[in-house]
């Protein structure tokens, strides 16, 4: 359990080869030659994972519509491959935009991409530098495309066309909103519950969830979903576009002068006068903004023991006697969990008492199959030899890919490196002392207890998160503390 080792990705290696009929006739490019060279490269690098071949014969690289390339992409999405190797970059694609799109797909699934002729490997610093340069060029192209798209969208919005997915209560027909009567009746009912029955966002969401009415996504209703529906001008027949900066991470609201506002673009579900009346009432019921830096001790690590959802801090009690509580977010926002509300002062005190007890009684248990090693001996000189051997072998690999040496020379160098690595592994034993580990954890817990009531909450929370993964509330006097 405690042995230190580099985790090896055991997923398959994908070898992709391609040749068009024209290229084969002109340059004599052979699929077998590509296949053999790439297979030899894998063996030379000491990669023992299963190798899978994706071979497109007589296929052009002008686009991504190639049978075996599509299959390769599907295997990447299924997380079945660890590496993809080609002889040259243009085997994968001749278009920069397509190449970058493929590499982005590989990166998102933690698949390294290697081209042996250009010595391009997304796992190396030089490979990542090349990728960043290519990415900068692509970013410039994307900005130019974005400008053209924005111009087109401004034109479409001014023509009254709807530019995104239809809001709940509508469906799209020729890029225009058409009322869906089944959903529209629910929208009218929500507005009525809010305006006439004086129900809040949470009460409306809870009522709809209890009745089993699905939301636009087919999932449960949230208080914030109701709030967004109540304030959406689309329901009074108005199209508003360009309110938010789409290229920024926080999507900040733009100045009103930049908005595109067109009245009467589609049939309203809610009468405009009623909609305006609802907005006046909604101003008084504005949801509090979520705090980016909670000042409550257990925020972020506290979990509901019934449903597993996070628990957030809230206020409860009478108007003149408020006190802090922690409550399940599924209970608070959707009404779908029956978890209790716990006073924050009592829960935080229980947490501190439990930590104190852990700092005294913590015991480390090993799995029966794990035996702690007793001795430790590391040879610095041998480590240096292994380091030099790996560098020397990497140079040999580069020489082989350039055609300067034979496969036999590369294999001999690999054997010499493997011998040194085996010697180092045989001499290198990691010492695991259970008592020392227990004392280290207890020491961290004691330190945490000593400073908990003296430092600001924000600092204390950071220290807690270094030791504690989560706290699960089982009852008023029952919590589970999961250490990292």
Report on this structure.
The protein is an alpha/beta fold and 484 residues long. It contains 16 helices and 15 strands. The protein has helices spanning 21-27, 31-44, 67-77, 89-92, 96-108, 125-158, 181-195, 201-210, 223-230, 272-284, 329-333, 344-361, 380-401, 407-427, 434-451, 457-467, and strands spanning 12-19, 51-57, 81-86, 112-115, 120-121, 170-173, 176-179, 239-241, 260-262, 302-304, 311-318, 321-328, 342-343, 468-475, 478-483. The strands form five sheets. The protein has a five-stranded mixed β-sheet with strand order 2-1-3-4-5, sandwiched between helices. Helix 8 (201-210) packs across helix 9, helix 12 runs antiparallel to helix 15 and helix 13 (380-401) packs antiparallel against helix 14 (407-427). 21% of the residues are buried. Mean pLDDT is 78; it is low at 1-7, 287-293 and 369-377.
